[in-house]
Design goal:
single chain; 165 residues; Thiol Ester Dehydrase, Chain A; elongated; MaoC/PaaZ C-terminal domain-containing protein; MaoC-like_dom
Length: 165
């Protein structure tokens, strides 16, 4: 289990890289089914064969969802997350196809306390890259996070396993 992270533990310039996740045909089909987006570019191999990419491609929002899921697996936002604030300047740079393995690269590009002072805002730059280290999606996703509770030990003490009285 990772130590709890709070607003105070983040600083501009920090970078994090997630594990990879391989996108499957089942992922694309399942996303199409529950989202009701059955556009043939995603769901029809015969149609897609004559299209721009030659094969069905994953829904753009599927890639974005996977990026957020991969960030969740880092464990650093689990304790402190309050609310996703928005997706800004998001670009779908290249298609994602079944068999691609993607990972998310995150950089903290801004931090600021809210006016109430009990939470902070993390400005985060994300790049979803494939197995060839090529960006497939990129943009910024803001996140409101909690500040360290008064009864929470400092990060160094938690990291070293120190006990807090």
């Amino acid at each position: 289990m990772t130590r709890p992270w709070w607003f105070e533990d983040f600083e501009v310039g920090q970078r994090f890289i997630t594990q990879g996740r391989t996108i499957t045909e089942a992922d694309i089909g399942s996303f199409a089914a529950w989202s009701w987006d059955t556009n043939p570019v995603h769901t029809d191999a015969v149609h897609a064969a004559s299209g721009r990419f030659g094969v069905p491609i994953a829904h753009g929002i599927l890639g974005t969802s996977v990026a957020l899921g991969l960030l969740s697996r880092l464990g650093i936002f689990e304790t402190c997350s309050i609310a996703l604030l928005g997706v800004d300047d998001w670009r779908f740079v290249a298609p994602i196809v079944a068999g691609d393995t993607v990972r998310c690269e995150l950089e903290i590009i801004g931090t600021r306390l809210t006016s109430r002072g009990d939470a902070g805002i993390l400005d985060r730059s994300l790049v979803l890259v494939n197995q060839h280290d090529r960006p497939v999606q990129r943009g910024r996703i803001g996140l409101m996070v909690a500040t360290r509770p008064d009864d929470s030990p400092p990060a160094e003490a938690v990291a070293l396993g120190a006990r807090h009285p």
